[in-house]
Write a structure and sequence with these properties.
Blueprint (H helix, E strand, L loop, with lengths): L2 H5 L2 E5 L2 E8 L8 E5 L17 E3 L7 E5 L3 H9 L1
Antiparallel strand pairs: 1-2, 2-3, 3-5, 4-5
């Protein structure tokens, strides 16, 4: 996937809250992946990287976020927000 395509942001509304995400390359098995900024998930800076089940996204262009592998992003974001 081209970097310009990854940098294009998309929005989804989950429980009345708008969350911005970026689609990134699929994993080695072909599963779709997305990156969401940690502040969009309600994670404080002191807890960044300590959320069980979420992998930090380390690309320099993004800042700080988590990779979410998902076929149903809305439901998975609802789970992580709870």
């Amino acid at each position: 996937m081209k970097v310009e395509e990854m940098r294009k942001s998309h929005s989804i509304t989950v429980d009345g809250e708008e969350i911005t995400y970026h689609k990134i390359d699929h994993d080695t098995n072909g599963n779709p992946r997305y990156v969401v900024h940690f502040l969009s998930l309600g994670v404080e800076l002191k807890d960044y990287g300590r959320i069980k089940g979420l992998t930090k996204y380390r690309a320099k262009w993004f800042g700080g976020g988590y990779v979410i592998q998902s076929y149903n992003l809305e439901e998975d974001l609802r789970y992580y927000l709870d």
